[in-house]
Amino acid sequence: MEATNFSQPLRQSSKGIIIIFAFNAVQFIKKFFVLFIAFGVSFMRRQSFGGITPTMIILGLIAIMLIILIIAILKYLNFKFHLSKDDFHLATGIINKDNTIIPKTKIQNVYIKQNFLQQLINVVSVKIETAGDKKSEIEISALDKPTALLLKKKLFLKAAIENTPLEQHEKRNVFFKISPKRLFLEGVSQNHFKSFLLIFAFIFGLYSEFQQYLEELKIEERIEDIVQLDEDTLFNLLLTNIVILILVVLVSFLFSIIKTFIINFNLEVVEHQKTIEINKGLFNKVSLSLTPSRIQNLVIKTNRLKQYFNLHSLSVKQAMVNAKQQKNFKIVALEKEQLNYLTNKLLTHYNSEIESAKPRPYFMRISALKMLIFGGVVNIITLGLIGVELLWINAVFIPIAMLYVYIGYKKAYYKITDHFITIGSGIIDTTTNILEIHKIQAIKLKQTVFQKRQQISSVIIYTASKSVTIPYINEKDALHIYNFLLYKVESQDKDWM
Amino acid sequence: MTFKNLQIQPESLPKVEDLILRPISKSYFKIITLNKLAIYAGLIGLAFGVVYFVEKNEEVQLNLWYILSILLGFCIVNFIIGYLAFKNRKYAIREHDVVYAKGLIVHSLITMPMSRIQHVEESRSWLARHFGLSTLKIFTAGESGSDLSIKGLPRIEAKQIKEIISARLNGSN
């Protein structure tokens, strides 16, 4: 195929009809799902519904599908885009004609995505995100890949032209490619607690119904022979509980691994001159590029186990990217050197080789208090529901809680250099938050009455993507930091984006 | 352990702690009072209603005075705290930033550099209009927690501040 000329109004690839059709059909089914079920049930019961025969229903469905198909074709025919010198133009709409013009300079991000269906028919969708409204996103849902890449390049070209004279063949330097083994390790070493909770909630719902049934059975048994079974059934119940627990743990384990695999399949980090490109995904392939100037925070996460395998994950928080998209900007299973290299690429001259400062031990007191309240509530609930027998759990809970408090304190630190703030935190995970000082949007000093007496306060730093807290430090230090950061932000004339 | 590695002497930095913050308009306390009175009037009315109905239907004796005195005690404490917290609501406009302090039990001091402000808004509620007050809302690109809303400013002052900030915004861009 010859190089596409974007200056003329273009349609998508004709396969776009399929995508639009599938999308609309799915939406239609989603909207009327409940209706379908209600209708279906009443139909099953009575065999007919107000004189409607099965053939009529099938014909009706075919008619609806045909209408959706016609709408899809019309949508496809009326969807035209082209590039002018500085702008991207898009005309859409069957009856209401919309004409959107986006200046190239205002384009924030261009994503290339490919869901399962798109993979099957070998097209990609291009999503253009602007800095403005969250709603003002444009999606071209079916383009063949070379065209999409060319479009992306052209969209970015004008915006970047003042910085770099265009290099015809920018070399594709694949900086990092994940191996299945490391991906597997990443899946294994994940915080399974989250998927555990997810599955636990799901299974608990099923189990509680099941349990009621069990209990009814048990009562019947008891009536049959009162003397014998009491201890046995209790033991049995405990055993089933344990088996179920192990099953749940196993399932959540598998769940994490599969989830990691699907999301990060073939993860690839490509280094360009200015930007960094991330490609990943099995069913939903995504391709994103990162521009260093838009980055607000970097979050590095690892845990004990991951450290052992040399696995680190790096999340990049950008301004005004919606939460769903934000999740995609995560690179997992990086080695330490790769991580350092990437950090340096994204934040020039990042250095953290200074002595770190720690919060006051008061930190432990607060988290101990929180633990105490949590433990108290849990205790009261177990006492109310189960009785005194289960109070031995405290023997396990208290040491864990103490460890939790201690590790939380041990991992907390902060470093402030001339250009960067680094804050460490975490309990199971080890989290490192890095942000550039000139990206700060506002700073807050927070102090409760109790902290005032001990001259402790916390500093909260807001950026355009998230806020970070330096918890419980000396009031004097806090004020120093406060003044210093303000001075830095206000004295430099650096833009935050 | 202490805060180090500064090339600038921390003593020479402009200090936010030395700043003399301006209190907001005194009449804003009237608005707070009115709001609270409305809530407590509602609660007391509710208490009367509950006692009335319960005594009618059942034999249970609820001590009305007991409930009322608890409510009253609550009300008084709430008012004292409210007043002290009101005293803590202060603000300052510096050359390069806006400072706002509030809160008694949890005291917070937030500073927003002028160069990061996205837009300013002046809004007036029905009650505030009667007292000649306005609320000044200042927005950054940061997440919602970092947006400022200075309540109970005299209208003229709010206008002036808005103009100052707007001028800065237009001047720098």
UniProtKB/TrEMBL annotation, chain A:
This is PH domain-containing protein. It comes from Winogradskyella bathintestinalis. The lineage of its organism: Bacteria, Pseudomonadati, Bacteroidota, Flavobacteriia, Flavobacteriales. The chain crosses the membrane at residues 17-44, 56-77, 196-214, 234-258, 368-386, 392-409. Residues 76-152, 409-485 form the YdbS-like PH domain. InterPro entries: UCP026631 (IPR014529), YdbS-like_PH (IPR005182). Keywords: Membrane, Transmembrane, Transmembrane helix.
UniProtKB/TrEMBL annotation, chain B:
It holds the Pfam family bPH_2. Residues 87-165 form the YdbS-like PH domain. InterPro entries: YdbS-like_PH. PANTHER family: UPF0699 TRANSMEMBRANE PROTEIN YDBS, UPF0699 TRANSMEMBRANE PROTEIN YDBT. This is PH domain-containing protein. The keyword Transmembrane helix applies. The keyword Manganese does not apply. The chain crosses the membrane at residues 37-54, 66-86. Keywords: Membrane, Transmembrane, Transmembrane helix. It comes from Winogradskyella bathintestinalis.
